[in-house]
């Protein structure tokens, strides 16, 4: 008897449907075709054990299973459940009347229980697009997939429960997720607050500008000045995720298997802080079957690189193209996978090997030229792509001893959200542009051209600091954000002047 069940596979952050054809005829051998990897081939032993423990039989006949399309490689253990259901239906042990209405995915344990799998959110989205009634998944994955409205997401603990449902012995209640409640529960959940930071008003101002326009930021200063502490608090002033941003971010984390069982959506902007020993593949994504890297996991959030010069040069250089295009394309011989990578790069570094160059109290012991050599570990093209360069100085004792609290993150966040609202209105006709940092040259000419006085200031800065054309664009973008924070329609001279101050690390002006 020939039976078809339907599963799903993920490429990048999108899913496509896999048709599993099971045919049982006279004979005794087992054949699994359609480019399965080793994990899929090993499903025979897991399925056989799960069926026996559940009181069912492994058919004593010839079993041929084809996974179509047959020219695309299938990987992972998530096909155990659809394969098992197909075998049971083809051997007439269960009814086949319902199985073509559902996408079925799940890994089987030897005792028949279902283990969670990766990528169920894009699978559920694809199931809805292709008109399936619903998805049958492990219980631990049900909340994650249930954010897709319009299909039934059914979560089960073991294969026996799945069989009872397909046989009509009991009704399963579809999982339901209240997305509004999910966002409400996490909107005020802040781990770190700006009110805990003493002093550093200049740095906090720069971070407010970065958050308001989605700009990249680098902080340079001696050890203990508060660079890492400030970076960790940036997420507390970023605007909350929209539903579309949350869904896109959740898809990436779902594919990477980063969604917790008790969570349905990623409701807070990601903050990723990889160690400096990370490889270039782990940072940008890749592998034989490409998986998202740290820059994609930071999509719609923050990627924090602490001690930037300690990262391998090759690791930093692979970020140059994603910083411009906000996507990463990973090419293999037979296919290309795209992952979104629209993130804010926040980085920190010491000014020299000893850490005390330009320190107000401690003397730098580095030999001549070592400061520039240390800074040269960060290439000029990469620094050009960072909008705001901030020098962080140690906080004096009288500031540290102040008992009066600093401004709370909620107050700063309100100003950031007002500026972002202005930008949303400005770019409402450009679906791919959401903030000032993403502006193209055409949009810069339209929205960020300064007056004559501002142009003169910019011309002087370009000549004295020997800035590149890319730095020119970055200054205009930052000045447009400063104007938005002031709710000013035009970019004025003092906006340009402040934006120029945030280019302190350009090669000709620092460390020489």
Your description of this structure?
It is a single chain. The protein contains 22 helices and 18 strands. By secondary structure, the chain is an alpha/beta fold. It folds into 2 domains: 165 residues, 2-Layer Sandwich (Ribosomal Protein S5, domain 2); 234 residues, P-loop containing nucleotide triphosphate hydrolases (Rossmann fold, 3-Layer(aba) Sandwich), CATH 3.40.50. The strands form 6 sheets. A 5-stranded parallel beta sheet has the order 11-14-17-10-18. Strands 1-2-4-3 form a 4-stranded mixed beta sheet. A 3-stranded parallel beta sheet has the order 5-8-9, sandwiched between helices. Helix 2 packs across helix 3, helix 4 crosses helix 5 and helix 21 packs across helix 22. The protein is elongated. It starts with a strand and ends in an 11-residue tail after the last helix. The mean pLDDT is 88.
Keywords:
single chain, 512 residues, alpha/beta, Ribosomal Protein S5, domain 2, Rossmann fold, 2 domains, five-stranded parallel beta sheet, four-stranded mixed beta sheet, 22 helices, elongated
How are the SSEs ordered, and which strands pair?
Blueprint: E1 2-11, E2 14-25, E3 30-33, H1 38-41, H2 43-53, E4 62-68, H3 80-90, E5 102-104, E6 107-108, E7 114-115, H4 120-129, E8 134-138, H5 139-145, E9 152-156, H6 159-166, H7 179-187, H8 201-213, E10 217-220, H9 227-232, H10 243-255, E11 271-272, H11 280-284, E12 285-286, E13 291-292, H12 294-297, E14 302-305, H13 313-317, H14 320-325, E15 327-331, E16 336-340, E17 344-349, H15 370-375, H16 380-384, E18 388-391, H17 397-400, H18 409-426, H19 441-447, H20 452-465, H21 469-485, H22 493-501
Parallel strand pairs: 3-4, 5-8, 8-9, 10-17, 10-18, 11-14, 14-17
Antiparallel strand pairs: 1-2, 2-4, 6-7, 12-13, 15-16
């Amino acid at each position: 008897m020939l039976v078809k069940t339907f599963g799903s596979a993920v490429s990048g952050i999108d899913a496509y449907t896999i048709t599993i054809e099971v045919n049982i005829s006279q004979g005794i051998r087992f054949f699994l075709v359609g480019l399965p990897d080793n994990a899929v081939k090993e499903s025979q032993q897991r399925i056989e054990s799960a069926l026996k423990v559940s009181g069912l039989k492994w058919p004593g006949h010839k079993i041929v299973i084809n996974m179509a399309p047959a020219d695309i490689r299938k990987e992972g253990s998530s096909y155990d459940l659809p394969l098992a259901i197909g075998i049971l239906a083809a051997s007439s042990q269960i009814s086949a009347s319902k199985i073509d209405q559902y996408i079925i995915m799940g890994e089987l344990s030897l005792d028949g229980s279902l283990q969670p799998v990766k990528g169920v959110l894009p699978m559920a989205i694809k199931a809805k697009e292709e008109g399936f009634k619903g998805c049958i998944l492990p219980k631990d994955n049900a909340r994650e997939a249930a954010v897709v409205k319009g299909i039934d997401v059914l979560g089960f603990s073991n294969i026996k429960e799945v069989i009872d449902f397909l046989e009509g012995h009991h009704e399963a209640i579809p999982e339901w997720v209240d997305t509004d409640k999910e966002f409400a529960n996490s909107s005020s959940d802040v781990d770190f607050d700006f009110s805990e930071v003493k002093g550093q008003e200049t740095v906090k101002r720069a971070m407010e500008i970065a958050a308001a326009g989605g700009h990249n930021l680098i902080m340079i200063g001696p050890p203990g000045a508060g660079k890492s502490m400030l970076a960790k608090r940036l997420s507390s002033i970023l605007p909350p995720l929209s539903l579309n941003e949350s869904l896109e971010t959740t898809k990436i984390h779902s594919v990477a298997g980063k969604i917790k069982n008790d969570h349905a959506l990623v409701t807070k902007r990601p903050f990723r802080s990889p160690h400096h020993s990370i490889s270039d593949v782990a940072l940008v994504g890749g592998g034989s079957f490409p998986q998202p890297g740290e820059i994609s996991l930071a999509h719609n959030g923050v990627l924090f690189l602490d001690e930037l010069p300690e990262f391998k040069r090759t690791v930093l250089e692979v970020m140059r193209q994603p910083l411009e295009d906000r996507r990463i394309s990973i090419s293999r011989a037979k296919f290309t996978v795209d992952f979104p990578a629209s993130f804010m790069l926040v980085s920190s570094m010491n000014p020299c090997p000893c850490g005390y160059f330009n320190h107000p109290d401690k003397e730098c012991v580095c030999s001549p030229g070592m400061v520039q050599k240390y800074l040269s570990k960060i290439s000029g093209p990469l620094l050009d792509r960072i909008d705001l360069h901030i020098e962080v100085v140690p906080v004096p004792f009288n500031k540290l001893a102040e008992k009066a609290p600093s401004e709370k993150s909620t107050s700063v966040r309100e100003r950031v959200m007002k500026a972002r609202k202005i930008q949303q209105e400005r770019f409402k006709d450009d679906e791919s542009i959401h903030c000032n940092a993403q502006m193209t040259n055409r949009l810069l000419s339209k929205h960020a051209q300064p007056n004559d006085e501002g142009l003169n200031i910019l011309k002087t800065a370009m000549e004295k600091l020997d800035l590149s054309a890319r730095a020119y664009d970055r200054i205009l973008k930052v000045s447009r954000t400063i104007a938005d924070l002031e709710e000013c329609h035009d970019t004025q001279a003092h906006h340009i002047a402040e934006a120029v101050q945030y280019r302190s690390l350009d090669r000709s002006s620092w460390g020489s």
